[in-house]
Amino acid sequence: MSAPAGDDGCAPPAPPRRRRRVARVVGGAVLACAVLAGVGATVVTVRDADRDPGKPSFEFQDSKPVEAAPASAKGLGALLVPYGTGDWSRGPDFQSFGSDAELSGARAQALRKEELSALPRTERRQLEKQYDEHPVKGMAMRSYLSGELASRSENKGVYTASLILTRVDSRAQAREQMTALTRAIDALRVFRAGPAVKRHKDAKCFLQPAELREDIDRLWCFAARGDIIVTAVMNGVWPLDTKGAATLLTAQLDRIAEPGEAV
User: What superkingdom does the record give (predicted)?
Assistant: First the structure.
């Protein structure tokens, strides 16, 4: 689905009409990703990283302040990959959430509904009904920064990642929601295929369409383990180090046993 590369190895710009169509499709798909994750407005988007490795600068989407407790050593937060695993360190804040947070079921449910405000009324009401029938039990999120930042003076090779664990009411519901979303994204036929996730063939990853090429590349990955939906979002300078980014998701899925407990 990527446009043919030119002599300089860069894909030529898509025609304006094609680009507008792709942008609309991608916008809808990204919103769907955000709705599933429940924290779409808070997911980090890397714009620029300062050359000073001690002071990275990031841009965030606007969002209402939401109180959240730091991820605990027990419960859903305990399942998240700890900082210091591999070369991953603490990443930028999820706005008022901080970089490491856990939400109660009620707070996570309210946030999921807030994320639906941009949808047309019919679709919004349908999803609100679905959410009421299958409320989330809790959510934990953690942002990471690749270890490359400390060793490079340029943005190339620098990326952030966000892991979001959403606990729903059953294993079947987690699988159903994850499968429905990934099939819908596949059907759009605009996303590039993402990397395979080692040891976890059921995980699905998607890369930003080549037609929307910007300075920043993005990767979305989804998986279900027990009653938990695992969402990973990676952002970095184009082209993203997809293999490196996928290692974090591998580590996360390795930590969760099928019943939804850390291993």
Answer: Bacteria
The 10s digit of each residue's pLDDT in 232-261 is 998 888 778 788 778 889 999 999 865 555
User: Could you state, in order of their start, the residue ranges of all structural domains in the chain?
Assistant: 16-255
Cα-Cα end-to-end distance for the chain:
38
Closest CA to 207 of 198, 223, 189, 220: 220
Cα–Cα distance list, 202 to 43, 123, 205 (Å): 23, 28, 10
Angle at 238 between CA 235 and CA 243, to 5 degrees: 65
Q: How many CB atoms lie within 10 A of CB 83?
A: 15
